[in-house]
Amino acid sequence: MALPEILQGMKVVITNVFRRKETVAYPEVRRQPFPRYKGRHILDRHPDGLEKCIGCELCAGACPADAILVVGAENTPEARFSPGERYAQIYQINYLRCIFCGLCVEACPTEALLMTTEYEISGDSRDGLIYTKDQLIVDAPIIRHWETKKELPPDVWVGESSGRASTDNQ
Fold first, then answer.
1. Structural domains in the chain (count)
2. Which domain holds residue 74?
3. What is the pLDDT of residues 111-129, one digit of tens each?
């Protein structure tokens, strides 16, 4: 029989039943992600305002989930969007498919695609989670949906926000 395993499992359950619960009043209290956290994508610009994306479609080719759609077009002398010959006419990221692996960022030759530490990605419909080029090019800081009253550093455990901070891995 498996009686020792059952008793060991019951011991774990009983010790955790009486432990203090670790909850956070999200979104008023939110935890900062670690600096290397891979969150929402953004498309960067050059300091002169031109787009860094040249429409090469390497990010779409590197995406294992097929979440990126890029359609490149030629720049004309009267309408220049990027410093190269091409630009991304259509750029979309489907966050329903994205697995946040960062391979698209690694594949970008011009460093136009970046990943931020922003983790609030929500939409009221399936179409709301397909971010277009206008949503991905960010000229101002990303606006959050809800106001934050307190922000915890990434190395503070959630249940210990009332005073003492711990960096132990328990």
1. 1
2. 27-157
3. 999 999 888 888 899 999 9
